[in-house]
What we know:
Blueprint: E1 4-7, H1 11-18, E2 29-32, H2 33-41, H3 45-51, H4 56-63, H5 65-74, E3 78-84, E4 93-100, E5 110-112, E6 114-120, E7 132-134, E8 137-142, E9 145-150, E10 155-160, E11 165-171, E12 176-182, H6 186-191, E13 197-205, E14 211-221, E15 230-232, E16 235-239, E17 243-248, E18 253-259, H7 262-267, E19 272-276, E20 279-285, E21 293-304, E22 309-322, E23 332-337, E24 343-347, E25 358-363, E26 368-375, H8 381-387, E27 395-401
Amino acid sequence: MDKSVFYGDDEEDQSRDSGGDKRSRRGKLLIPYDMEVETLSRLPGKSLMKFLCVSKTWSSLIRSQRFVASYYAAKPSRFVAAFTNSVFGKPEHLFILSGEEEEASSSSSSLVANLDMRIPSVTLPYNGYKYSSVHGFMACNDETTFIICNPSTRQVVSFHCKAFRTSLGYDPVHDQFKALTLLTSVYDYIHNPSLMMCTHEVIRLGRGGRVVSRSSQVTSPYYLPMTVGRCINGFILLLRTPVFVCFDVRNERVLSFITTPKEVLVWKVYTSLIEYKGKLAVVVPNCLGCASSFDRFNLWILEDVTKHEWSKQTFDLPLPLPFTRAPMGQRLISQGTNKAGEIIFSPTTLPGRAKPFYVFYFNTDTKSARRVRIHGVADTEEFWSRYGLTGICCASFSPQHADSIAFL
Length: 408
């Protein structure tokens, strides 16, 4: 379609032109439609949010479903770092920062994160550090309040859940986000040992982040999840004893229970669920005895979902990484890989007041590791003083976060 859109239009000028005035639009810059789309698609999401106010034409284009989808597919992923003030710290804030990922061929020793948004009245307890990244949105639990935000658009949506364990899922077929809450708790099982079934609530989200509907009809055999759910290709996966639970987001049902390796079950909450080369994988640190660090880890990869077949790879690290099991202790976990397939280990708490924030990249092919500093993650005294940070602050690092300009 051969279109031209002129920059800086206003309704008054257009009405004069359409009324028969054949004067040329002097001072107006005519831009071919395709070129305009191409230009806008190259800009950062934050810039596009500002350009919504340039004209109705641009606003309509940027908010169109077609442009949002093409932008998501074309833009490279980013990393996201998030942290909150200490459990007892005031004021309560959730900080979300992001930055450009390095090129696959790069071996950079530092990256830069910029503060995207600061959400007030949110402080997550220890072990609440795993923020999930789902199709351009971040999600976390603050007790029974479920919080979803988009760092690019700065949209924040929160709503009440009937229980503490909620995971965000995405249905790519119908382009819809849904939240899954496990309503059955361990206390229900204690009071009723003969309990055989679990009940879930599925919350469907619509435009404006509003809750379209809630359903509590999804049931399954009883289980107690050990990890935060991770959404991969339209399925939410949770580790339980003794299997993985696979929830089909589109059809809103527990699809299957996947037999889990015994070692994964032994370590349970100390394991990390990641997406590794398009497959579900579990990182199991080798921390024997009372060791406060690990220099070896096992990588369990789910090779065949239907046959429940797993493969295991063992890797030795060139340097030990902290892994304290005590509450509030220093610990490094993995929440995914970068574009090059390197497994990234990041701390679950900020390293200390105004101290540098480091993550570690491990290359499974060359068996080499490198330390990368993330500049801007609360690493200055000025930042701590300005926002009143105190104590031990829970942190999270999500590689390959999709840059999306979609609104719930």
